[in-house]
Amino acid sequence: MYLPERRLFSRPTLVICLVFFSLLSVSTFLHLQKNNYYPWWRISIKNIFTLSNHEHTSFLNTTPGTPSKNLDRGIWTVNSIGRLGNQMGEYATLYALAKLNGHQAYILPAMHQYLATIFKITLPVIPSELVGKIPWKNYHLHNWMSEEYHHIQGKYVRLTGYPYSYTFYHHIHQEILQEFTFHDYIKEETDRYLLQLRGQRKEVTYIGVHVRRGDYVNLMPNVWKGVVADKGYLEKAMNYFREKYHDAIFVVVSNGMDWCKQNIDATKGDVYFAGDGRESSPGRDFALIAHCNHTIMTIGSYGIWASYLAGGETIYLANYTLPGSPHFKVFKPSAAFLPEWIGIPADLSPLLPKS
Ligand SMILES: *[C@@H]1O[C@H](CO)[C@@H](O)[C@H](O)[C@H]1NC(C)=O
Ligand SMILES: *[C@@H]1O[C@H](CO)[C@@H](O)[C@H](O)[C@H]1NC(C)=O
């Protein structure tokens, strides 16, 4: 007697369940259809799920079937050009601008290869199979922050240029410094080396000295109407620190170590020519000066980054090009050197006509 009644009672429940599941399937279907608008999207999801490389699984922080929140926020990246200082600048600029515009930043495999051997960087990497399939919109940056960079449009933006100015990322400098944390083995090796330089002394103040030579020795006078750091500049900068810290020692790295040995006075016993000058693997030299307490830099983004990471006092070569140099089209001193850094003007007399 009671049995049919109980069946009658359960029938609507069954119907409700059926209707509910039909609606769910239809909405899921529609959702997937909507995403099919981007043909590469399907390819990407398929490719990503067949990847076995663990590094690449971070590209999709999601479970199969649910489009990732990160992918919804687009894919922003930056070109991977130049050497260490440029690569760091491109990375930091992408990190900051993507965040500012509410998009997810990813780096190209080449940049990952360059920077991840030195630093504990965290931005996910775009699998190389995907790079060519994404409909990038290139967006060129000059090397200083501008109002329009707060409103860059596009879901698949590739920033281009050689940006490294602190004006892009100084407002989040703690995060940027965190990204450029050295791997433990590099830090340990560097600490050991610096301790060795200290010798029997109880305390020393380490001054990292980066002397940029190499291609710039020709580029500066011939292309940029400028000079590179000379003997006089380095002497003035070193004397500033010698007067301030009685225990200062100078740790010199350069891609022109021979010039340094001939032009930096080491007779006081406080100068160490520490750099190996290997441009192909710049990480060791860079770590050395970035771990010093203060910095003397000359020119170039490598020195600027070493100073930024070291975080103490920085002396830089100022006004090293003639007025009207084409350099000012791509370089704005106030956006390259932090306001608290100390500039020593260059001697431009080698560029002036001989009287
Ligand atoms: C100076 O640098 C050395 C080497 O990195 C470090 O051990 C020391 O704590 C620093 N000193 C100061 C005062 O920051
Ligand atoms: C560089 O030149 C500018 C313009 O002449 C001047 O204002 C500035 O003080 C100079 N910088 C240094 C460090 O001498």
TrEMBL record:
<keyword id="KW-0808">Transferase</keyword>
<comment type="similarity">
    <text>Belongs to the glycosyltransferase 11 family.</text>
</comment>
<keyword id="KW-0472">Membrane</keyword>
<keyword id="KW-0325">Glycoprotein</keyword>
<dbReference type="GO" id="GO:0008107">
    <property type="term" value="F:galactoside 2-alpha-L-fucosyltransferase activity"/>
</dbReference>
<dbReference type="Pfam" id="PF01531">
    <property type="entry name" value="Glyco_transf_11"/>
</dbReference>
<dbReference type="InterPro" id="IPR002516">
    <property type="entry name" value="Glyco_trans_11"/>
</dbReference>
<dbReference type="GO" id="GO:0005975">
    <property type="term" value="P:carbohydrate metabolic process"/>
</dbReference>
<keyword id="KW-0812">Transmembrane</keyword>
<keyword id="KW-0735">Signal-anchor</keyword>
<feature type="transmembrane region" description="Helical">
    <location>
        <begin position="12"/>
        <end position="32"/>
    </location>
</feature>
<keyword id="KW-0328">Glycosyltransferase</keyword>
<keyword id="KW-1133">Transmembrane helix</keyword>
<keyword id="KW-0333">Golgi apparatus</keyword>
<protein>
    <recommendedName>
        <fullName>L-Fucosyltransferase</fullName>
        <ecNumber>2.4.1.-</ecNumber>
    </recommendedName>
</protein>
<dbReference type="GO" id="GO:0032580">
    <property type="term" value="C:Golgi cisterna membrane"/>
</dbReference>
<comment type="pathway">
    <text>Protein modification; protein glycosylation.</text>
</comment>
